[in-house]
Amino acid sequence: MNTPRASLSNIIRSTPVRIALWLVLVFASVNLVTLGGAYVTLKAQAEAAIRADLTAEIAGLDITATPNALRRLVEVRARASDPRDRVYLFIGDDGLRAGNADARLSEGNVILSASDGRALSHTGYLQEVRRLSSGILVIAQSLERVEDLRRTFLWLLALSLLPTVVLSLGLGTLIARRSARRVERIEATLGRIAAGDLTARYDPGAAGEDDLTRIGRGVNRMAARQEAATEALRQVSADIAHDLRTPLQRIAVLLDELQSKTTEDDPRAPLADRARAEADRAVQVFHALLQIAQIEGAGARADAAPVDLTEIAREMAELYEPAAEEAGVTLGTDLPETPVPVTGDRALLGQALANLLENALRHGGGTPITVSVARNPDGPVLCVSDRGPGIPEAERDLVTRRLYRLERSRTTPGNGLGLALVAAIAQAHRATLSLGDNGPGLSARLHFPSVD
């Protein structure tokens, strides 16, 4: 059994991957809030410790008696300190400065700058500024420790999230790929059932008992019940048609005998003619029902062979050309010059095209009819179109039912089985019958699968 390959888009849209993404989002949010809260707390504590240290040190220098003594003390500490770590600066009222950095005053703020070619910290500073009687004392501590703390928390965040993301998405993708293959097999089974193949069944393979296995078994049970019900209905229809066909044929024979015994001036003659016509119509209905049941019961024919759709369309158009001329209808063709092969039964395909042509002649309102064949990328298409009143969109799915007729068609000849027979032939060839708007008119298309 060929397993459908799970597409990337299906995997991304699958439930396991979506659950994995939600888990990643939840874990990331929790980690972000937790580590973010811890970082904000520790950062505030670190800055508070730096400020306390600066306040204590500046308070110790504040007790120096004279500006010269304070200047010398600042110079000693400045020489022993790297300005990228700690800045000492004293600006006296006399304009003399001492320290390992320079500064300027701007709107009451002290802006530090490098001096003597010694660089400052790129992370900024926390600073304490004290106005003394003899000048301004500035002590600033680099925020490198706070920056190190920030980098540490970023690494912690990355190291905590990366394994979570990789494991969650990896496991989610693996589970999704496995689930996607099984979901696509279920979809393929449902597609075959919807296309009319009621023998289609889902094979769970070696998968264990889980929700998808239970769904697949439910699909199989549904298909089995539908197949049994359809087979029973088909058998009942066939039995009724078969059992009633013989009595109807006998009635037709008796009516023939009655007609032969009546003269033209006999008042019973018109009644006998009408009864004979109705008997013939009933025989045709039961014959069509039997034919549909036989086609549906046979399914895809074992003796199906490649046939040329173009040749069938050309032959049927030539066959119906006299009837079209007699009805005053123009019958045209739009056929390719090269063969368009399909696999099927030549006689059944001819019957389907004949029914479409008769439907167009009967209900096309005398408008031109076109028979066309096209080779599309997704398979050959046989089309019969007219410019008549068409079929209302709401009833296009109903007219392929057995014995269904449009209200306006009840006064015209027919039994409501023509399009039902076409649909049965299409299903037997794994083709689809679609009825569309020809703007105006009806466009009846048979879409065939591609021939490999």
Automatic annotation (TrEMBL):
One of its GO terms (cellular component) is plasma membrane. Its EC number is 2.7.13.3. This is histidine kinase. Keywords: Kinase, Membrane, Phosphoprotein, Transferase, Transmembrane, Transmembrane helix, Two-component regulatory system. It catalyses: ATP + protein L-histidine = ADP + protein N-phospho-L-histidine. SMART domains: HAMP, HATPase_c, HisKA. It comes from Roseivivax lentus. SUPFAM superfamilies: ATPase domain of HSP90 chaperone/DNA topoisomerase II/histidine kinase, Homodimeric domain of signal transducing histidine kinase. GO terms for molecular function: phosphorelay sensor kinase activity. Residues 239-452 form the Histidine kinase domain. InterPro entries: HAMP_dom, HATPase_C_sf, HATPase_dom, His_kinase_dom, HisK_dim/P_dom, HisK_dim/P_sf, TCS_sensor_his_kinase. The chain crosses the membrane at residues 20-42, 153-176. Residues 177-231 form the HAMP domain. Pfam families: HAMP, HATPase_c, HisKA. It is found in: Membrane. Its main location: membrane.
